[in-house]
Target: ABC transporter ATP-binding protein
Amino acid sequence: MNATPLLKVDAIETYYGSIRALDKVSIDVNEGEIVTLIGSNGAGKSTLMMTICGSPQARSGSVTFQGQDITRLPMHEIARMRIAQSPEGRRIFPRLTVRENLQMGASLDDLKYYDEDVERIFTLFPRLKERINQRGGTLSGGEQQMLAIGRALMARPKLLLLDEPSLGLAPLIIKQIFDAIRELNRTEGLTVFLVEQNAFAALKLAHRAYVLVNGRVTMSGQSRELLTNPEVRAAYLEGGRH
Model:
């Protein structure tokens, strides 16, 4: 691991009007790690993800990527630093085909890897190859999530941000998607920051984890330790798999 985290969020506070959504939140993501942020609905997880991407911007504290302060940069400049996001709710282009959606994600700075990157996505998600000329809006929920992740990967990111990738999906599809993320991390060293309500799946996937409650980080540690932590089990794993 590098001594300096790839992504460092330091004591950020984010507001919506006068309402404080994030209260001095600090997290680190080292190069080559999968780090997850778990918490219940409304805890502020997606707000943190959006703050990293620059909208909304943190009112105080800082966000640093590869040692550079990006707290006040506009969204498009942050994206050009090869931070790619697969947002909550997928947000693919419903009227565009699978191929066209992937084209929208490709790095405009360097298209020489385009064909190679498309094949890489189809190897990860063979279902997308079968649907290559199908409009995004006609895909199943799981296929749309695969497409959203594939589109983000087309930018060849140094950091992949995943916001609730399991939301609304069947367990088998969740497993396929999380297996693909694990494989990318294992074979390519892709760094992933995952925001997820499905605590069991997220903790099984990630190396380290943070717990967010009402806009504050209340706990952090190795994922395998949090999986067995009584507080985490009671709050997020009861009724789920153990």
The chain has a mean pLDDT of 91. The chain has ten helices and ten strands. Residues 1-81+158-242 form a domain with the Rossmann fold fold (CATH 3.40.50.300). The longest strand covers residues 19-29.
